[in-house]
Amino acid sequence: MDEHGKRHECVMLNAKNTETDWELVNGRRRVRVHVRGTVSSRDHLSVGTFVYRGHGIGLLPAAQYEEAVAAGRLVRILPGWSSPEIPVFAIYLSRKFLPARLRAFLDALVAWKSPVWTRN
């Protein structure tokens, strides 16, 4: 498992000096994999484009690329592994008199299937 990123060219997000670490989880197991590659970007869409065009493997948001995987355009390696879940919080002043735009945004966040939500 630890050697996987060393044997493959990787497309990285926010890498420094052509290398970075990927933290992966599988149930209670957690590993840090040191990866290298010649391509790095500051956004997931660019990383996904480079991966799709064959420049290497990448750590991508599953929900964003599930259709490409289902269609066979991308192959998921290490299917039991993922990055750790990242909680997302929406913080706003008051629940009274919410502007319609904020209400629509909050409804869209709740409907989004990817992250883990904490409602307070």
Explain this structure.
With 120 residues, the chain is an alpha/beta fold. It folds into 2 domains: 4-70, no CATH class; 87-120, no CATH class. The protein is built from 4 helices and 5 strands, in the order αββββαβαα. The chain has helices at residues 4-7, 44-52, 62-70, 100-111; strands spanning 10-13, 19-26, 29-36, 39-41, 57-58. The strands form 2 sheets. It has a 3-stranded parallel sheet, covered by helices on one side.
Largest sheet: 3 strands, parallel
Sum up the overall morphology in one term: elongated
List unreliable stretches of 5+ residues: none
The DSSP helix count reads: 4
Which class do the helix and strand fractions yield?
Answer: alpha/beta
Distance between the termini: 38 Å
Order of helices and strands: HEEEEHEHH
Strand order across the largest sheet: 4-1-5
Question: Would you report the number of β strands?
Answer: 5
Bin the helical content: 25-40%
Record keyword descriptors for this entry.
single chain; 120 residues; alpha/beta; 2 domains; three-stranded parallel β-sheet; two-stranded antiparallel sheet; 4 helices; 28% helix
List the helices and strands and how they pair.
Elements: H1 4-7, E1 10-13, E2 19-26, E3 29-36, E4 39-41, H2 44-52, E5 57-58, H3 62-70, H4 100-111
Parallel strand pairs: 1-4, 1-5
Antiparallel strand pairs: 2-3
